[in-house]
Structures are given as C-alpha cells and as structure tokens.
Write a structure and sequence with these properties.
Length: 273
C-alpha cells in the first residue's frame, strides 16, 4: 500500500488525507448543487459544508481516540496527529449535531438539509475508504485465503506477522495448524465498502427527485449506511461488546431510526420535493 504517495518540497502527501480532501470537495459540489435545487442559496450550502468538515474531522478523531483509549494513553501525541485513525460515525454524529443547531438558529428545516446531503454523505464515505485502502490504516478485515485477499505490509497498521501479533492470533484461530506467513492476507474491507457505498450513492442520487416528505431520503441513507457497516464489521477486527462491535450497535440504531423515519413520512399525504 501507499501511505505516502509523494512530497511537495519537504511536505509529505498522505494518501489518506488526499482522498479525504477529494471526498470533501466532491461531496461539497454535489451538496451545493442539490441544496440550490431545493431553493436555498450558496450561503446555506457554505455554512453547512463548513460545519460538516469541522464536525467530521474533529468528531471522527475524538471517536477513534475513545474507541482506542489504551493506544491514546500509550502515545497521545502520535494518536492525535496520526493522519489515519478516524472513525466515521464520530464525525457523522458531531456534524449532524452542529448542522442541527445551525438549522434551528436560522429557522431552516433540518430534514431538508439532511435529505440534500444524503447522497453526498454515502459517496464521500466510499471515497474516504479508498484512502483507508491506500494507507492500510487497519480498516482491513480478518485473514482469508480468498483469491482477492490482500496484504498491507507497508500500511500504517501492517499485516506483517512480525508487526501485528493480534492479526497472528486471528490467523491461528481461522487456520489452525497452518504455517503463519510473513505477510498475512486479509479481506480488503475498504474495497468492499467503497463498492457498496458507490452503489448506495447511485440509488440515493436517482431517488433524490422523487416526491417525498422531508426526511424520507435521509431515512433511507441511514438504513443503507447502517446495513453496510453492520455487515462489514463481521469481517473486521474490532473489540466486541455483548457480541457485536461498537460500530454494529450504532448501525442497528441507525437502521431502526431510518426505518422509523421512512415509515412515518410515508404515512403523510402531501409530498415535498
């Protein structure tokens, strides 16, 4: 993999950071286009984008630090400034909170903003996962011998057996008695997530002009995002709490909330584009 893809003078260009920037710019372009279609101006789009960017980065980093608190305590500086180590749900939660407060203060319908952002959110997530794939930041899956299995020997979280004892233990459990390879091949989970996210984006983008009450499309986004992460976590390496990972519990909540929103909005008679 390629955690660092080049330099501008002495400044390194990190693949993860580059893909996050591309994801943000792409999402911003599509969101601005959609928010204008719904009757709002550039000022609303700019402010919402700013809050999404700040909330996304800060929330994702804070959530990751809480999720990996022992690593943070062992080396706080490296944990905070590592270009990897971002947890999407943390960024999503904080961004939603900031945008909700803004919408209340400006008397703008929050659910209209949420619907406008839904396709962009899932697309940005998929592009961001390309950065995870290039950086090898540990978002890969458990060991496997499938033909498309990959190794991340030079990633931020290497798959070299000498440098990843946790992965070695997984390999022993999955393939008992088999000789441990120098580089353990794993599920390329970021690739799976990118492909699923792009498919979800195509569906949401096509449905965005369907007459529906505000909140219906965002509810569908919550279901898509929740199902995607719930399923992919079964092949990821993460701590379990009562049989599921933290991300899976959040995913279940998202699926239930999204289903409730779609059901509630479908009961209304008059659609809103």
């Amino acid at each position: 993999m390629y955690p660092e893809i080049g330099k501008i003078g002495p400044i390194p260009i990190h693949s993860f950071g580059l893909m996050v920037a591309i994801a943000f710019l792409t999402a911003n372009y599509l969101f601005t286009k959609e928010i204008k279609r719904r009757g709002y101006g550039d000022d609303v789009a700019s402010v919402v984008t700013f809050f999404a960017f700040i909330g996304g980065l800060v929330g994702a980093k804070l959530f990751h630090l809480l999720e990996n608190f022992s690593e943070f305590m062992a080396n706080p500086v490296d944990a905070i400034f590592n270009p990897g180590g971002l947890t999407f749900y943390g960024g999503l939660i904080l961004s939603i909170g900031l945008i909700y407060i803004y919408s209340r203060r400006k008397h703008i319908k929050f659910l209209v903003l949420a619907d406008a952002a839904a396709p962009s959110l899932i697309l940005a997530y998929g592009i961001g996962r390309i950065g995870c794939q290039l950086a090898g930041d540990g978002d890969y899956g458990i060991p496997t011998d499938l033909p498309w299995a990959m190794g991340y020997p030079n990633g931020y979280v290497s798959t070299l057996s000498a440098r990843n004892l946790e992965l070695v233990e997984y390999f022993k459990n999955i393939f008992p008695g088999r000789e441990i390879p120098t580089d353990i091949k794993v599920h390329p989970a970021p690739v799976y997530e990118t492909l699923i996210a792009f498919l979800c984006f195509a569906i949401l983008w096509k449905l965005r002009k369907r007459p529906a009450l505000a909140g219906w499309l965002f509810g569908l986004y919550l279901i898509f995002a929740g199902l995607e992460r719930l399923s992919i976590e079964f092949i990821r390496i993460n701590p379990l709490y009562w049989g599921l990972s933290q991300a899976q519990w959040i995913s279940i909540f998202m699926i239930i909330l999204g289903g409730y929103m779609m059901w509630k909005k479908s009961l209304k008679a008059e659609p809103v584009v």
